[in-house]
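Form 12-C: Joint structure prediction
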Amino acid sequence: MNMRPPPEMHRDRVDFDSLGAEIYALASELYPICRSITGPGVRRTLDVIGRHIDIERQWVPSGEAVFDWTVPQEWTIRDAYIRDPQGRRVVDFNRSNLHVVGYSTPVRAVMPLSELRKHIFTLPGQPDLIAYRTAYYTPTWDLCMAHRECQLLPEGDYEVCIDSSFSDGRLDYGEYLHRGASESEFLFSAHICHPSLANDYCSGLALLTVLARNLRSRATRYSYRFLFAPGTIGALAWLSRNEHRIPLVEHGLVVSCVGDGGGPTYKRSRRGNAMIDRAMAHVLSLPQWNGTVKDFSPYGYDERQYCSPGFDMPVGLLQNSAFGTFPEYHTSADNLDFIRPEYLARSYRLILEVIDIIEGDWTPINLSPKGEPQLGRRGLYAALGGDKAGGEAAMAMLWVLNLADGTHSLLSIAERSGMAFSDIAFAARLLHEHGLLADAREDPAGADASGGGGLEERPVSVPI
Amino acid sequence: MNMRPPPEMHRDRVDFDSLGAEIYALASELYPICRSITGPGVRRTLDVIGRHIDIERQWVPSGEAVFDWTVPQEWTIRDAYIRDPQGRRVVDFNRSNLHVVGYSTPVRAVMPLSELRKHIFTLPGQPDLIAYRTAYYTPTWDLCMAHRECQLLPEGDYEVCIDSSFSDGRLDYGEYLHRGASESEFLFSAHICHPSLANDYCSGLALLTVLARNLRSRATRYSYRFLFAPGTIGALAWLSRNEHRIPLVEHGLVVSCVGDGGGPTYKRSRRGNAMIDRAMAHVLSLPQWNGTVKDFSPYGYDERQYCSPGFDMPVGLLQNSAFGTFPEYHTSADNLDFIRPEYLARSYRLILEVIDIIEGDWTPINLSPKGEPQLGRRGLYAALGGDKAGGEAAMAMLWVLNLADGTHSLLSIAERSGMAFSDIAFAARLLHEHGLLADAREDPAGADASGGGGLEERPVSVPI
Amino acid sequence: MNMRPPPEMHRDRVDFDSLGAEIYALASELYPICRSITGPGVRRTLDVIGRHIDIERQWVPSGEAVFDWTVPQEWTIRDAYIRDPQGRRVVDFNRSNLHVVGYSTPVRAVMPLSELRKHIFTLPGQPDLIAYRTAYYTPTWDLCMAHRECQLLPEGDYEVCIDSSFSDGRLDYGEYLHRGASESEFLFSAHICHPSLANDYCSGLALLTVLARNLRSRATRYSYRFLFAPGTIGALAWLSRNEHRIPLVEHGLVVSCVGDGGGPTYKRSRRGNAMIDRAMAHVLSLPQWNGTVKDFSPYGYDERQYCSPGFDMPVGLLQNSAFGTFPEYHTSADNLDFIRPEYLARSYRLILEVIDIIEGDWTPINLSPKGEPQLGRRGLYAALGGDKAGGEAAMAMLWVLNLADGTHSLLSIAERSGMAFSDIAFAARLLHEHGLLADAREDPAGADASGGGGLEERPVSVPI
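Section 2 - Result
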C-alpha cells in the first residue's frame, strides 16, 4: 500500500504526561479553598483560574430574581469548631472545611453532648470519613464529623462555634471564550461551588482551565465557551443573562469527576441523539476507550438546567466514575490522593478526540459515484491484487466512497461502518486531495440538508 | 423530605381478601351450569350475573346473518350417557357436562364397543381427565371420557344416548354500561359459552361482574362496557349490532383464565402500541408484577374478532397462564380446585392498576420550564443538600418537570423514566397543586396533539 | 382438518440430485481454463456456457473509457515456468495456471535464486498451497509457488519464463435474458475472470448457467438477466452500456462460492431492506436454512459496483462460506475436491426459494374483513372444536386474513407471523380460491401503495 503516513492529528502533538501533571498541580492549588455558591472562596478560585486564562468575571447581586430562583445572600465562613469539655477542638474548620455544613447560620453556644448530636452529621457506614453537606436556602446550622470520632466523645458540655455571616453581596461566575471561525459554540461547563473535594470538582475546573488555555493556539471552526459558575444558581444566572446566545450552543459538555480511574462515563443530553451524544457514543464505543453511555436522566449536575424543557440544549455530562457510584463521593476521601495525573490526562485526551470529531466532521460527495473510482492508478490501493484482507485503510476509503452521497457526514460513516472517526476522516482527506470527493458545503447542490454539522461557513485555513 | 403521604389511590381502598372470596363464590355458582353458544345454559348464566349488575339482555334469532356467519339453532341438552352391557352408566352427563361434545346431534342406539369407540374422544396423555370438545356448525355426535376408563370397557353391546334437540331460538348475550363523563369507552369482554370449566371461563365472568358492580361507586372519565357473550358468534353479533359504537371504544380487554397462579400474561392488540398495550406493558414491567407481554397473534379468544382488519380495535387479552399452556386447559381438571381466591384478587388488582392509568393519564405542561423550579422553597425537596440518593419521590418530580413539554403524557413519562405510573402521577399531582404544572387539556395552546389520551372533555370533579 | 394437500411447488418438481451432478459437471468443465479479466480464457468460458444457454456475447475495445476506468489491453498467457539449475521445471504453468500472477509482463531471463525470490510469492502459513494473485493495471511480473517447495530450491542460476503478451483487443462478457411478463428484472451476476478456482468462481458460473437454462420452461412475472462478466471492469462495462436499464432491476444477486459446505451467507444490499434483502433474510431465518445475514459492506464482489452510490441497486451477495473466511480461499486448495454436488444443489434450491418469493408475492385483501369469515363451513377449518393446537395451516390462514388489509404483502405477513412464506402463500391461495381474498392488483382501490412488489402488471397464467 503506497500511502503516506497519516497527517499529524492535533492530539498527536500533545505531551499528555506533562499535561496530566499540570492539571494535577492546578487542581492541587484549587483544593484547599473553601468554596460555596457565593462568597470569597468563589472569587479566590476565579482569581487562580484567571492567572491561566483571561476569564471575564461576571456577577449578579443578592436578591436578584433568576427565573424561579433568587440569588441568595453571600455566606462568609471564618471559623467553625467544637470544643470538648477538656477544651480540645474535636471539630475544626481549619483542619477540613467539610466540617461545616455549607450556608450554616452563625452559632456560638455551650450545650450538652445530647443536644449537640442533633447538629452533627456522620456517615456510620464510612466511620472514618467526613461527609460533604450543604443547607442552601434553609436557615439552619450543622457540622459534619467522622462517625468513629463522634462515637468516642465523652458526655459533658461542649462549646460550639460557627463564625459565619450573611450579607447582601453577589453571585460570582467567570467565563472564557475562544473565538472560532463561527459564532456557533461548544459550551464547557464546570461548577465552582464545592469546597475541598478533589475529583468533584477541582479536577473539572483544572482540566477545563488547561484546555481553554491550550485552545488559544488552535484555529477552530466553532467558538468554545468555558463557564465556571456555582452549581444550579450559577448556571441559571448565566442562562438568564444569555438567553439570546442559547441557540448558538450547538454542542455542550458538563465536565466533572475526571480525575479518578473509573469510567469514562457519558450521560446523554435530553435530546439523546444530538451530535455531542453521537460523537461521545462513537468514541466510547472504540475498543481503546470502552466507555459507558447512559441515557439522560434529570438528576445530576448543571446539565439538569441546560436540559430543562425550556432550553433543551444539546449538553451531556462527561465523568470518569459516575457521581454517587464511588465510595469517596462527597466525603473527605475525595482528596488529592484520589485523583491522579494520568487519569486527568486520559480525560483530556478523550475530550480532544471529541473536539476533533466536532471540528472535523464534514459531508463528502463522491465525484465518481458510478462504480468505484480506480484507486490503484492513483496510488491509493494495494498494487498487488488478491490480498485476503482488504486492509483497514482501504476499507475506510471504500466506506467513504460508498456513503459519500451527500446524506452522510463523516461521523455517520464512522457510525455505520464501525470504524474509528479518525480513520474515516483520514481516508476522506486523502480522497479529497485526489479529487475524488467534494465537500457538501463547497458544493451544496449535491448535499442533503441532514448531513454534517450546523455550521454555515467554514474557514479555509483550518485542517479538515 | 417534607412531603405529605400520597393521596389514597382507588385501589388502596379495596379489601382484596374479601373481593377474592366474593369472585370465587360467584365463579362457583356459575361453574355447574352447562353452557354452550346458545340455549338455556347461557340464559341461566345471564340470570346469575343479572342478580349482581343490571345487565341489558340482548338476543339475535336463529338464522339471522351476522357478517359471514349465521346464528345457529338453539341446542338443548337434557341428558347423555353410555350404558355398558351390564347396564351401568359408564358415561353420564349428570356427573360432568364435559362428557357430551357441544352441539352433538341426538342419538339413541345400541352398538358394539368397536363402533362406539369411533364416537368417544379421550386424552391418552392425560388418561384420568375428560376433555372439553365442541362440534358447532357440523351435524355429528361424540362423547368424551377419561382414557383410562375407556380402556377398561369390556367388549359387548352398549347403549348410547344423547338427549339433545335443536330448535329455532336465539343467541343470547348481555351487556352492562357504566357511564363515565365521556362517551368514549373501555370495553371488557368475556365469553359465556363454556360449560363447567372454572378458569376458562367462570373466572373471567365472575371477575368482570364484580368489577362492573364496584365501578358503580366510582366517577370515571371513560364509560365502561362489559360484554358477556358466547365466543365468536356472540362477539360478532354484538359487533354487527354496534358498528356505530366501535370508534368510541378507545381501550379494550378480553379477560380470561384469571383464576390460576401463573402469569400474568398480556397479549397485545393487533395495533401493538395502543394505549391499552402501553399501559399493560408498563404495569407488567414493574418488579411487583413481572408479567409477560406477547405480541398479537390471530389465534385466541374474542380479540380475534375485535382485532380483525375491518375493526382493528385496541383490544388486548389478559390472562394469568396463557390458554393452551397449562395442562388443565380444556379438561375436567379446570375445576374449582384449580382457581383460587387470591389469584382472582390479584387479577382484579392488576386490572384496577390499568384502569388507574387509563383514567389518570394527562399531559402536564411545565409552567417554569427554564431551568428547574426551586422545589426546596415550596417544601417539595430535601431540605438538606448533598444526599447521595436523590430519593424516588424527588426523581419522579424531576422527571415530570423535565418532560412536561406538552408532548409527553404521564404514561410516556413513566415509560421513559422507568418509574411506576403511580409514582409519576403522584408527583405530577403535587406539582400541579403547587402551581408548577398546567394540564394540556386546560391550556391546549401549549400541548402537542400527540400527548395524553383521546378524551376531549374531562370532568372537573374527577381526581387526576 | 379437511384440507387438500398443498399444490405442487415449482421446487418440488426438481430432481436436486441430478441437478447437483449437472452443475458439478459443468463446473468441472470450466475449471481448467485459465481466465483473466480479458483474453482467450474468457472467450473460451463463454463458449462453454453458450452451449447451454443462448447468451449474447458483448465486448468493449481496449482503451475505451468505462466511468473512471479504462479497458486494459488483452493479456494472453501461453506458458510460464522456472527451470532450476538442473533444468527441471520447478514451476510450470501447465501444471497449475495459478503459478503465474495474472497480467504479468513477459520475461525470459536467467538469474540467481536470490534475485528470483523477489518475484516469487508464497504462503508461509499454508506451505503446500499455491496462492492466487493478480497484478492488473500495474506493469510487473511475478510467480506463485508452494512455500515448502520454494524453501527447498538450491542456490544457483534459474531460468524464468513468462510467455505472455499484451495487445489491443477487447473485454468480453456475456448475458442471457429470460423474458417474463414484465420488463422489470431480477439480475444474477457472476464474475468470469478467475482461473482454476472451483468454488470461487466456477461454482457460481455453473449454477447460474443451469438455472438460466431451467428457467426457460417457466413462465415468470419478472424477466431474469444473467450476467457473466470479468470482475469490476466487466460489471462496470455492463453498467456503462446499460444505464437506462438500471431502474428496471428490482432485485439482484451476486452469486459466488456456492459449492462448499459452509453457510449459507447473505450480505445485504446497500439499501439494507430491499425486497431481495427481506426475502433472503426471511428464508435464511427458517430453521431448515438457519443461515447468516450480514449487513452491507463495500468490500466484496461486484455488488461493490452495483451498490455504489451512483447506482444503489438492490443487489446482495449470496455465498455458502463467506469469501476470505475459509482457508482454501484464493489458493490451489479451492479445487474440484472442495466443492460437492450436494452443496451446489442446496444453493440452487435456496435460490429457487427466493425466486418463489419474488414471483409469488402479492398483496391480499380480505373480502370479509369484519370478524373472521366462517372457515368451517367452507371445509377450511378443523371440524371438531376444542383442539389444543390451532394447527399450522389454520394459523397461516388466520394470519393472512388478519393482515390482509391491503398494506401487507405475503412476504410482510410471513415476516410478522414468523411463518414460512410458502405456508403463508399456500394459505392465501386457498383463501383466494374460496373467494375470501382479492388481489390488490386486481382491485387496486383497496390496496395501499406500499404493499407487494413493484410490478404493475401480472400475467393471468402464472401461478400465484
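Section 3 - Comments
The mean pLDDT of chain B is 90. The CA atoms of residues 266 and 293 of chain B lie 5 Å apart.
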